[in-house]
Amino acid sequence: MTYLKAADGTTVQKVNIANGPSRAQLMSYGATLTEFRLDGIAYSLALGSTDLESYQGKMQYFGAIVGPIANRVAQGKALLDGQSLKLAVNENGNALHGGLEGISQKNWQVKELEQNWVTFSVKTSDGESGLPGPLEIMVSYSIQNDGTLKIEISAKSEKPTFCNPAFHGYWCLNGEGLSGHKLMIHADHFLPTNKALIPTGYIQSVEGTPYDLRQPIDLPAEISLDTNFCLNGSGLREVATLATDELAMIVETDAPGLQVYDAARLDTSPVIGHCGKPYVRHAGIAMEPQVWPDAPNQPSFPSIALRPGERFSQTSFFRFILK
Asked: Which run of H or of E encompasses 54?
């Protein structure tokens, strides 16, 4: 275990877990996956940095657990049991990933650590970022015997609130950007958005659109992706495949949505990543299991309300297959 200092003076812990052909490095700041490696591959499949300061700047969401409400909430407004909440806004007047002081910018506690798994926890106070609480969120990362990465997120609150945390890892399977990757998503529908990337409220069929990824398409796609796909089925199931000629990553989740961002606007300059240079446009792809964005303002979307006595839970697997 390695110890670092965050800007607020708290101690950040770096930990390593491993099992089968896989090994990962994580840190308590943001409950962040900083590296993921497979035997026989010389580079990390997860984009990131060895430098803590990078995650407090240009890489603030890389590999982190974001929230308490992942993705965007229009104008930071949310109606809960007749009460109008004003959330902290940080992107064009909208709330993104919990605002400027979301859980990705907090130093979590390492609750448990074993050879192949680690559990982090964090608490937000009542009213923090505009949300009722206190809210406690936990995430466990574990590596299965076959090298699969399993991520389990849970949460509970002392007051009625909203909760939709998500893992925000960027993946690149060839170490050279998205060129040479193919992507398939099991989704018959997606959420169209306005210019601010806020869902319009319409649930649209992918049929006949560039968002039909039910068969593998080449990346980068003909249209930039920062899109929520409304996943087919329910419960834990296979929802997506990212593949190169040599390696495939299969995503399984019990979440109803998968936000896919192809990093079309990415530029971490001057911050350097694992590749030895800044990450730029299409350096990787974020595949974020979550409930649909702007859910508090869209009655037809799955709810993200969390009440005392209830438990938020989400389980996802990232399975790797060498061809």
From this structure: helix 52-55
pLDDT band at 1 (very low <50, low <70, confident <90, very high): low
Task: Produce one character per residue of 87-110: b if its CB has 16 or more CB atoms within 10 Å, e if not.
Answer: bbbbeeebbbbbbeebbbbbbbeb
Amino acid letter at 311? R
E strand or H helix that includes residue 66: strand 64-66
Interval 10-21: pLDDT, tens: 899 999 999 999
Query: Residue 126's domain is classified under what CATH number?
Result: 2.70.98.10
Band (2; pLDDT cuts 50, 70, 90): low
Please give the model's pTM, rounded to 2 decimal places.
0.96
> In 10 A of CB 237, how many CB atoms?
12
Instruction: Residue count of the chain, please give it.
Output: 323
Distance CA 220, CA 206 (A): 18
Cα gap 323→267, rounded to integer Å: 31
Convert the pLDDT of each residue in 305-319 to its tens digit.
Answer: 999 999 999 999 999
Q: Of 214, 301, 300, 310, nearest to 256 (Cα)?
A: 301
Question: Which run of H or of E encompasses 190?
Answer: strand 189-190
Domain that holds residue 42: 2-322
Distances (CA, A) of 222 to 21, 80, 99, 219, 262: 35, 39, 31, 8, 11
Which residues are part of the catalytic machinery? Answer: 168, 288
Number of separate domains in the chain: 1
